[in-house]
Amino acid sequence: MQDLVTRIEEQAGSLTRAERRVAEAVLAEPGLLAFATVAELGQRAGTSGATVVRFADRLGYAGWAGLQATARASIDQLRPASVRIREAGVDDVLGATAEREADNVLRTLDAVDRAAFERAVRLLSDRQRSVLVLAGAAEDGIGTALHDALDLLRPGTERISGSPVAVASRLAHVDRGDVLVAIDLRRYERWVVEAALHATDAGGVVVALTDSPLSPLAALAEVTFTITAEGAGPFDSHVGTLALANALVTGVAERLRRPATDRIDRVEAAWQAASTLVDG
Q: What is the CATH number for 12?
């Protein structure tokens, strides 16, 4: 599946509208590739079987048969958690986890376009812009960690979460040029996508951390980073997402080294004055 996702990413800009619908159907329900016919996949994507075949050819597979063979070979990685939890366990849990998580980090960071990364770092370092961070429920901890780190480096950062009323109230005050960091993987939470849409309508800039260039967040983002999230067990991994978030924080720290140092020193002094932490 990872090979397929990579090929879709590489060809995303050249896909026709109909081919994009095929790609979206495949990414939303990967099992279709392994078990559907050409006609069934075309129908699900609202297009023709001929478009499906052209889609396979464009991605460099040996037609539909080659694409389906690849999907069937990787189907074990595509099954939902409710199915994977019922399958045979992993013999070497630590070894399998170490291998998979290292691969997630390497694939995620290797896929980063350097120019896009520098653009995102510049946006997040611009203290004239407010930075809003929001994340789906599964990525909530990463969203919080990213916000907290950025808040130590610069003013004007905010974590967007809570009830729909609270989220809508804050988004009502998004100004032109504000930066919204949106973090979510398939299956995407509607409120995250709608928040990103609201931000773009208000003139904000979206930086997306997601799992596909065809995700609804990527369609709204000025900068998109694609995450590899394959878990060794039944659940997706968030290690690659965290690694990318850490890279962004490091980039901002390098860019804002002098003012960030002063800001961190003031926070550290306040912690010490309040005796909030225990060393040792």
A: 1.10.10.10
